[in-house]
């Protein structure tokens, strides 16, 4: 049987058929695996692109956040500067107002002192005149009083 050439031809034929069948199946399986690998590769490429897009978007949002933080810090610094300026301006206005009121009070005090001095002088003059009148009435005679009045009238005429 092993020496019969027909046997070997049959074996070779079977092996060729199996080989051809295996190649077709292998090609089919290989084609399916290649298609699956291509699909997986496409999904990986799409996932990589999505990852890159997400990283770019994250970087953009982080940049915007930094810019917003810087802007917020600038706004806070500006607000502090404005508040400081307003406080300083208020303190200046307050000190000016206090000085103005102090000057007004000093002026009123000075005026009140002048009025008080004038009133005291007027009262002193009135008291002195009343005392002089009292002294003159009690100690001078009527002739002497008349002569003093005449002398005073004469001195007034020379003044004008």
From TrEMBL:
<keyword id="KW-0175">Coiled coil</keyword>
<feature type="coiled-coil region">
    <location>
        <begin position="37"/>
        <end position="89"/>
    </location>
</feature>
<keyword id="KW-0066">ATP synthesis</keyword>
<keyword id="KW-0813">Transport</keyword>
<dbReference type="InterPro" id="IPR002146">
    <property type="entry name" value="ATP_synth_b/b'su_bac/chlpt"/>
</dbReference>
<feature type="transmembrane region" description="Helical">
    <location>
        <begin position="6"/>
        <end position="23"/>
    </location>
</feature>
<dbReference type="InterPro" id="IPR050059">
    <property type="entry name" value="ATP_synthase_B_chain"/>
</dbReference>
<keyword id="KW-0138">CF(0)</keyword>
<comment type="subunit">
    <text>F-type ATPases have 2 components, F(1) - the catalytic core - and F(0) - the membrane proton channel. F(1) has five subunits: alpha(3), beta(3), gamma(1), delta(1), epsilon(1). F(0) has three main subunits: a(1), b(2) and c(10-14). The alpha and beta chains form an alternating ring which encloses part of the gamma chain. F(1) is attached to F(0) by a central stalk formed by the gamma and epsilon chains, while a peripheral stalk is formed by the delta and b chains.</text>
</comment>
<comment type="function">
    <text>F(1)F(0) ATP synthase produces ATP from ADP in the presence of a proton or sodium gradient. F-type ATPases consist of two structural domains, F(1) containing the extramembraneous catalytic core and F(0) containing the membrane proton channel, linked together by a central stalk and a peripheral stalk. During catalysis, ATP synthesis in the catalytic domain of F(1) is coupled via a rotary mechanism of the central stalk subunits to proton translocation.</text>
</comment>
<comment type="function">
    <text>Component of the F(0) channel, it forms part of the peripheral stalk, linking F(1) to F(0). The b'-subunit is a diverged and duplicated form of b found in plants and photosynthetic bacteria.</text>
</comment>
<keyword id="KW-1133">Transmembrane helix</keyword>
<keyword id="KW-0472">Membrane</keyword>
<comment type="similarity">
    <text>Belongs to the ATPase B chain family.</text>
</comment>
<protein>
    <recommendedName>
        <fullName>ATP synthase subunit b</fullName>
    </recommendedName>
</protein>
<keyword id="KW-0375">Hydrogen ion transport</keyword>
<dbReference type="Pfam" id="PF00430">
    <property type="entry name" value="ATP-synt_B"/>
</dbReference>
<keyword id="KW-0406">Ion transport</keyword>
<keyword id="KW-0812">Transmembrane</keyword>
<keyword id="KW-1003">Cell membrane</keyword>
